[in-house]
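Q: Can someone sanity-check these two? First one:
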Amino acid sequence: MTSISRRGFLGVALGAGVSPLFSRAVASSSAFPNGRPIRLIVPYTPGGGTDTVSRAIAAKMGDAAGWSVIVENRPGAAGNIGMNTVAKATPDGFMIGMGQTSNLAINPAMMPTMPFDAKTDFAPIALVASVPVVLVVKSDARWHTLDDLIKEAKAKPGSLKQALAGMGTVGHMAGELLSNQAGFEVLNVPYRGAAPALNDLMGGNTDYMFATPQAAQEMLRGNLLRALAVTSPERLSILPEVPTVAESGYDGFSAVDWKVLIAPAGTPEEVVVQINDVVEKVLRLPSTAAMFTAEGSTAMGGSVEQAREYIAAEQQKWARLIKEAGITIDS
């Protein structure tokens, strides 16, 4: 984790027996939120990956700082409904949201209209975690390496079918990024979710898919699928034998689904930094690292400025790819 400076915190822990790790976070809570609950908007349905992470982080923030962080699900429109709720909220720190790659970087570049401006309507608070996708094929497929698959894709343009959990997902974008860098034509077959996409892949109706580790893990363990590569910069601890796309010959390749806490634009900087401070400490906990590792994610963290810079770079990266590939989707 990156060591960062902080502003706007009281310097002395309140009460005896407070752990040094959380002393500043607990002290700062006397200024904010003064006992009022903080609403954390999750732009997807309960039970999904984003919801699970959001609830865990909310609970740990409560334990660390004595705050009441209440998770509210506002699903719909590929995450845009929930994010728009945050964008239009009073900028006082009492409503924040869990943004993602899709709704803050991909949707704005793909959809002809958006209810909010992802670049100007939010104040990034803290990077939370990132998770890559895994390129999987049937366990009895003729491809044993990423190079095998790409050689055939180049030799037979448009013949291989890529299953998608949905248009505009990180898995979709990972496939587009690979075809762009490797120089082959991708034939996308979109589904309404990962489960039907993986079922058709195992049934032989498609050839490969970039799936999340959570969606594919049990099928990989049961030898129903074979993993050819992961899209993170480094190998996953839960799939240590699977090489990255980057080390397979595509330097710098990275496609991850990151999660970031955001507030409405105009939220006081001192409030944003206070929340960041608590989240940063939560992400340093061994229990948090273990939680993310178990699902194939990596804790991120860092300063408010680092969150701003990271999101801006990702927005530029995906917008460039989407423009070059001519990808569009109805709003």
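And here is the second, same format, sequence then tokens:
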Amino acid sequence: MAINTVTHVVLTGGIGSRLWPLSRKTLPKQYLELFDGESLFEKTVARNQDVSDKMIVVGNIENYKMSNSIMSKFNIPFTHIIEAVPRNTAAAIAFAAFASKPEDVLLITPSDHIIEGNDAYASALQQAITLANQDFLVTFGIKPTKPETGYGYIEFENENVIAFHEKPNLETAKTYLKRGNYFWNSGLFCFKAGKFLEELEKQEPEVYKTSRAAWSANNDGFLDYDLSLSIPSISIDYAVMERSKDIKVVPAHFEWSDLGSFESVYDYLVQKGHPIDSNRNIVIGTSMHTTFIGVKNCILIYTADALMVLQKENSQEVKQVYQQLESIASPLL
């Protein structure tokens, strides 16, 4: 079998609204140097350097300078695609596919995940690349460690996907955990550029057509605002992965977190030796002396213009605070 070029595609478009007030539109979570003094974006690039021959960064007009600044630390040539307006992951990945040769294998990774266990990660990637070379669209499934309501799930049998499921309520998540043949949906993908575009054209012709028009008119990687606005905003899961017949899932035996909530940030920081008091309360963002009395498992998040105190278990509710601030066009975003 011919060995095709592997291109690492990094998606940098997220805002990280569940990590407000640390994560802001002007400094989203993937650029925060909170993790061993490095940003998640930097860790993502470093982690995939050895497995890929090329690199594409898909970002937006608000964050591309931050991406360029981090990429300057690496001696890697890369293609930068800059969206004028966010149109979700189906379009973002389509741009990367249009910028590639049809036989190129694309390894799609978000820029804001933590992955540990290099050997297990490399092994999963090799398995995925092999399947991608056989014209499958590959997703990576994470074995659940708890009944998590913040992730989508993949129902599977061996490497075959039975169904994708939206974020469940707690009872459903407990059922998934008990059944044992459900993975968390990691948001990592691997497939040939041409195969993805073929499936996108079949399943969502409007996304395919409008993305192609926007890409064709790109100016040195910058996409046109009006052409971009006409692209339907649809995720890759809904547009392609949930509807294609050619899907495979690779089980991930590496440690993974999308750090999508303060609960997962808390778990990560505590594991890394972040200071914690006797009632498992922690402070993020300041070295100012802080005392917690009568509360357990709390997180105090400090920034120059906002303070937040939350119960670790209520981390998913931070998004509601963000939406509330958004509704009044708050400058705190």
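A (reply): Looked at the second one. Residues 132 and 191 are 5 Å apart (CA to CA). The chain has eleven helices and 14 strands.
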